[in-house]
Specification:
The complex is a heterotrimer of chains A (177), B (330) and C (538).
Chain A lengths: L2 H7 L1 H13 L4 H9 L7 H18 L7 H12 L6 H22 L6 H53 L10
Chain B lengths: L3 H19 L3 H29 L31 H14 L1 H4 L16 H22 L1 H4 L5 H10 L11 H19 L1 H6 L2 H24 L3 H12 L11 H16 L7 H7 L27 H14 L8
Helix pairs in contact in B: 1-10, 1-12, 2-12, 5-8, 8-10, 10-12
Chain C lengths: L8 H10 L24 H6 L21 H15 L1 H9 L11 H6 L6 H16 L1 H6 L10 H11 L7 H5 L6 H14 L5 H13 L7 H19 L14 E4 L3 H4 L3 H15 L3 E3 L15 H18 L3 E4 L4 H8 L1 H5 L25 E3 H10 L15 E3 L3 H5 L5 H10 L30 H22 L3 E4 L2 H14 L4 E4 H8 L24
Parallel strand pairs in C: 1-2, 1-3, 3-4, 5-6, 6-7
Helix pairs in contact in C: 3-4, 3-10, 4-10, 6-10, 12-14, 14-23, 18-20, 20-23, 21-22
The chains are: A mainly alpha (177), B mainly alpha (330), C mainly alpha (538).
The structure holds protoporphyrin IX containing FE and iron/sulfur cluster (2 copies).
The site of one iron/sulfur cluster has 15 residues of chain C, from helix 6, helix 9 and helix 10.
């Protein structure tokens, strides 16, 4: 059985374990809420993260990747990037996938671990990690962008007004109506 | 610790009553304490409500939970969730108090995905809350059997409905089962759900243990130890007619039961159980949303320092004139 | 890259249970983290409005430069508030900690910080209440859930009262209607007495007090700003609009949040008002003195809110208008609905609003004498007084965000929807538990729309954005309509981050785009200067 096959068969267990590890980065009281509440609108964080992780897993085992993996990762990382986590913690979830998979292989198969395949799989996860750093940085940049934008919107109009101020005095609308 | 402490407290109460009865303090536990408890309950309750009432309601701040009464008849008002009349408020309050309307709001479970269908635990909260309060109320009313010479028909009907399952002798009351079940659920919720456990205080566990203790001691009396019922009625009637007696032969379970009830009565006005009174005084629920139609008066409204138009004009007069704005003073 | 050590999964999974969940919240210290708080107020702004204990201070520094007797100030203040507000007293006493409100707060949902559960936010203050105002708390201390008011507790209170947008969503689900927003209002009032305001709030308050609006636009600047819009309107429609300012004897005074005067996309909404009123030939005037509908004073103290609000009636009286129309804004309308008349009424110098166009009498506002622009416009449309071409908005696939305040502090739900359905052809509601009275906050209300707390804003905005994303994915929604000036700014930011491709608009921008004006030239573009559907090639 190839590692891909194994992963698709074990997807649910792996996903659950993986998700649990992510939740571990939240306070336990929150973790349970994120885990138990299934309504995507009442619990968008838990829902989005779990859904995103499912897709990422699918993509990893797919023969011909759809090229969508960036989008799925983005959905997750966009959330992690504004919750108060260090980049290290925000992205560690990628690496824990390796552990989860190794562990699952260890418990599931009695034969020696398929090292070659596992290594190949792990390199794919590593590439995922690199991609994730890109996304994380983009998200953070976006935040700064938004801050700058808000400021610019304000000052833009203000500047416009100051500049217009004197030359415009004559063609003011007639205040008396 | 926050769970054990209240548990120990309730156990201690049981032990105190038990030891007291062994030490022949029946008069103390059967007369003094109940009188004191009822007095504290009544006075305490009134004082608490009076204290709330002594703070005014300066603003009309209903939480509007639906379409307001619109200027236009063709926009349909949600007359109960966003009431504009007294009747609407009455209906809103009635729904709140009788069926816990707001808690119920919580229960929509659509669009769930994943393999399992998950019901919002809030639905259970609403259900257990209702079951708990209603069975508590019914049990309370049923107790009037002990408080009256002739049992009114209403109570008889209630009793027979309550025991319609016709199981066991004496007949099993449904509400007993429901009460114990619901309280147990409410307790487990506070232990099992980390979120709820996190916010819980000893003061949240204590009343649950206490009520459970009352219920269990009552059940013990009715179904198992078979208390000397004539004696109990005699004692209660004595208390009510202010000529207390202590009939012989009432088991210690009864005194434990009575002591726990007394404890609940004393504890009531000091605690969150006062939500019973508070729910009626909650300004976000008991007010009509009509503050645009009728001016609400704030008794402590006082004049404040404002920046008047004159001051404004004084500061900007030149600029205003230059911009062609009319001014009061040239 | 930082060293990543990943323990064995099994270890990690079990470690979830081993975590000290039994730890009481009181024992978990609060750390004031960057990205989640706003800068402290500047002394000069507080001095302008005579606020106490004015000083420059920085929340991230250890020393908050509190007055020596800060505890006394806080506790006396609390006693006063308890005596003045039954709401506060009852809400301090009757919470059973059932947890129904716990997961209803957008800040909890988006951040996962348990102290953002409304019940816990309230407990932060309730624990202090118990310690100093109840017998059991005085005697039993921590066992009764009471705690001393230490400097760390004060900081924690400050931190979390500035992570609540007073949206009242929690109050909706509480079986007793306990409104954590009300508790936050009290908490901020206490902070105000210690000079612990934020810069983002106290700046606008000072501006509004002296200059009439949050932005501090002086009279000529307001006119100038509107002048710019009039130029744009002329370019688009060929019609020159000529509004009046501070004009005595006008029938109607128009007041809108000043946010609409300076920042896109609010300016487009403002253009919408101008065009609508012009088309109707409405006898109305703007005021430069009462040039702010919003009320940041409401986020500091009740008294300050009243001081700022007083200008509206005062100006209506001075100008001798008959009644007032208010623009699209959220908290402005909570204040106008539930506070204004009580503070500064009775407005007996005004008349019950009657639409001069349709003759409709707005009896539901017969005391405040102030109507919401969407009431006014919905009535016009219903009576067929507007010529509308909704197809001009055909490039928009619209959803509608209810502002917290107009939904849960007023109940204005169907009026704006009626308008939207009439001015555009593609309208889709977001899921049921995220709209109307259950609406999610934009995440940046109550003066939290600064930039230094952007992470907090994005977290708080996520539940709303998530629902928008849903309708975007399902129906291709690309425009998020609302009736709030703060929303227009903050949702723009939140969409930018969470749901790129969805833009934000005020309802009256869409009205104006659809409005066929007498004598207009054939429009090529919408108010944003983008080609109208079907005119892309031109
Ligand atoms: C007008 C009367 C009352 C109303 C409307 C009312 C309403 C409620 C509601 C809505 C809850 C929250 C849901 C729940 O946890 O069940 C609650 C909780 C509770 N009520 Fe009442 N109640 C009333 C009277 C009483 C009385 C008379 C008692 C007891 C002696 C009582 C004891 C409790 C307790 C112990 C809880 C907390 C349950 C828990 O720990 O979760 N209530 N009440
Ligand atoms: S819903 Fe109300 S009673 Fe329940 S925890 Fe929240 S505030 Fe307290
Ligand atoms: S008012 Fe809104 S922001 Fe504040 S605690 Fe309640 S839900 Fe959260």
């Amino acid at each position: 059985m190839s590692i891909e096959q194994f992963l698709s068969e074990q997807k649910d267990t792996i996903l659950t374990k993986w998700f649990d590890l992510v939740l571990d980065t939240y306070p336990p009281d929150t973790a349970v809420f994120l885990k138990k509440q299934d309504n995507p609108f009442a619990n968008p964080v838990g829902h989005t993260i779990r859904e995103g992780m499912g897709h990422v897993l699918d993509e990893l085992v797919r023969e011909t990747p759809s090229g969508q993996i960036g989008v799925f990762l983005d959905n997750i990382i966009r959330i992690r990037a504004v919750q108060d986590l260090t980049p290290e913690r925000a992205l560690s979830f990628i690496f824990s996938l390796k552990e989860v998979v190794r562990e699952a292989l260890r418990t599931a198969s009695h034969q020696p671990l398929p090292y070659d395949e596992l290594l190949a799989f792990e390199s794919r996860v590593d590439r995922l990690a690199l991609l994730s750093f890109d996304i994380f940085v983009q998200c953070r940049e976006k935040l700064y962008d938004i801050k700058a934008n808000e400021l610019r919107k304000m000052t833009f109009r203000l500047l416009q007004r100051v500049n217009d101020m004197d030359e415009d005095q004559e063609k003011k609308p007639d205040p008396a109506g | 610790m926050k769970i054990l402490l209240p548990l120990f407290a309730v156990v201690a109460l049981v032990v105190i009553a038990f030891v007291g009865v062994q030490a022949n303090l029946q008069a103390f536990f059967g007369i003094v304490i109940p009188y004191a408890a009822v007095a504290i309950f009544i006075i305490g309750f009134i004082v608490r409500v009076f204290r709330w009432g002594s703070s005014p309601v300066p603003f009309r701040i209903p939480t509007t939970a639906g379409q307001m009464k619109s200027f236009a008849p063709w926009i349909k008002q949600n007359k109960i969730d966003n009431p504009s009349s007294r009747l609407g408020v009455f209906a809103r309050m009635a729904l709140e108090v009788l069926v816990f309307r707001s808690l119920f709001r919580n229960t929509k479970t659509e669009l769930h995905d994943g393999p399992k269908l998950v019901y919002g635990s809030e639905k259970f909260l609403w259900l257990a809350g209702l079951a708990f309060h209603w069975s508590f109320l019914i049990i309370f009313v049923r107790h009037f059997r002990f408080f009256m010479q002739d049992v009114p028909t209403v109570i008889q009907i209630m009793e027979s409905l309550d025991s319609f399952l016709q199981i066991g002798a004496p007949l099993l009351y449904l509400t007993d089962v429901v009460l114990v079940g619901a309280v147990t659920f409410l307790f487990l919720r506070r232990v099992v759900m980390p979120q709820i456990k996190f916010i819980s205080l000893p003061a949240d566990y204590f009343p649950l243990f206490l009520i459970l203790g009352i219920a269990l001691s009552g059940i013990l009396m009715r179904y198992f130890t078979k208390v000397h019922i004539v004696g109990v009625k005699e004692l209660v009637m004595g208390l009510l007619s202010f000529s207390p007696v202590i009939p012989a032969g009432i088991g210690s379970v009864f005194y434990i039961h009575l002591f726990l009830v007394s404890a609940l009565l004393i504890y009531f006005p000091l605690s969150k159980l006062m939500h019973m009174g508070g729910v009626f005084l909650s300004p976000t629920r008991n007010m009509a949303n009509n503050s645009r139609e009728v001016r609400h008066i704030n008794p402590w409204n006082y004049p404040v320092h404002v920046h008047t138009y004159q001051e404004y004009e004084d500061e900007f007069r030149e600029k205003m004139k230059k911009a062609g704005l009319p001014v009061e003073k040239e | 890259m930082a060293k990543v050590t990943t323990p064995k999964p099994a270890e990690l999974v079990t470690s979830i249970d081993l975590k000290p969940s039994a730890q009481q919240w009181m024992d978990i210290p609060t750390e004031i983290k960057p990205g989640t708080f706003c800068w402290g107020a500047k002394a000069k702004n507080l001095n302008i409005v005579e606020f106490p204990n004015a000083r420059d201070w920085n929340p991230s520094e250890e020393d908050w430069k509190l007055p020596e007797n800060w505890q006394e100030i806080f506790l006396t203040g609390m006693k006063n508030l308890l005596d003045k507000y039954r709401s506060f007293k009852v809400f301090m006493d009757i919470c059973v900690r059932c947890g129904a409100c716990a997961d209803k707060c957008h800040f909890f949902i988006g951040s996962g910080d348990p102290k953002n559960m409304p019940v816990l936010r309230a407990e932060l203050l309730r624990s202090v209440y118990r310690r100093y105002f109840t017998t059991s708390g005085k005697m039993l201390g921590k066992t009764a859930g009471a705690r001393d008011l230490t400097i760390d507790v004060l900081k924690e209170l400050w931190y979390y009262f500035y992570q609540c947008t007073e949206c009242r969503r929690c109050s909706l689900f509480c079986p007793y209607g306990i409104d954590t927003a009300e508790i936050t209002i009290m908490g901020r009032e206490l902070m105000n007495q210690l000079g612990l305001n934020t810069d983002w709030i106290s700046g606008p308050v000072a501006n509004c007090y002296m200059k009439g609006n949050h932005l501090g636009l002086e009279p000529h600047a307001i006119m100038n700003s509107i002048e710019g819009m009039i130029d744009d309107i002329e370019t688009i429609t060929g019609i020159r609009i000529n509004p009046s300012f501070n004009r005595k004897g006008a029938e109607i005074l128009f007041v809108t949040p000043s946010g609409d005067l300076f920042a896109d996309p609010g300016t487009f909404t403002c253009m919408g008002y101008l065009m609508l009123f012009h088309e109707l030939g409405l006898d109305y005037t703007w005021s430069t003195y009462a040039s702010e509908g919003g009320n940041f004073g409401f986020f500091t103290s009740n008294e300050m809110a009243k001081r700022l609000n007083s200008k509206i009636y005062a100006e209506a009286k001075r100008l001798g208008v008959k009644y007032i129309i208010g623009g699209e804004c959220g908290h402005m309308w909570r204040v106008l609905t539930q506070y204004m008349d009580t503070w500064n009424g009775p407005a007996d110098f005004l008349e019950v609003p009657v639409s001069p166009i349709t003759g409709t009498r707005f009896d539901t506002s017969r005391s405040t004498k102030m109507i919401h622009i969407t009431e006014f416009t919905a009535d016009l449309i219903k009576n067929g007084k507007l010529k509308l071409d909704p197809s001009r908005n055909d490039d928009l696939i619209v959803t509608y965000h209810d502002s917290c305040n107009t939904s849960r502090g007023m109940g204005l739900l169907d009026e704006p929807r009626y308008i939207i359905r009439n001015v555009c052809n593609h309208f889709h509601e977001m899921p049921e538990n995220t709209i109307r009275e259950q609406t999610f906050c934009c995440g940046s209300g109550t003066g939290l729309n600064a930039s230094e707390n952007m992470e907090l804003r994005m977290r708080g905005g996520f539940p709303r954005a998530n629902a928008v994303k849903f309708v975007k994915d399902r129906h291709g929604v690309n425009m998020l309509a609302n009736i709030c000036a703060i929303d227009r700014a903050t949702l723009s930011a939140s969409m930018d981050y969470w749901v790129p491709g969805v833009r934000v608009t005020g309802v009256h921008e869409m009205v104006a785009n659809a409005l066929i004006m007498k004598g207009e030239k054939e429009r090529e573009t919408n108010l944003r200067g983008e080609p109208l559907p079907g005119k892309e090639g031109n």
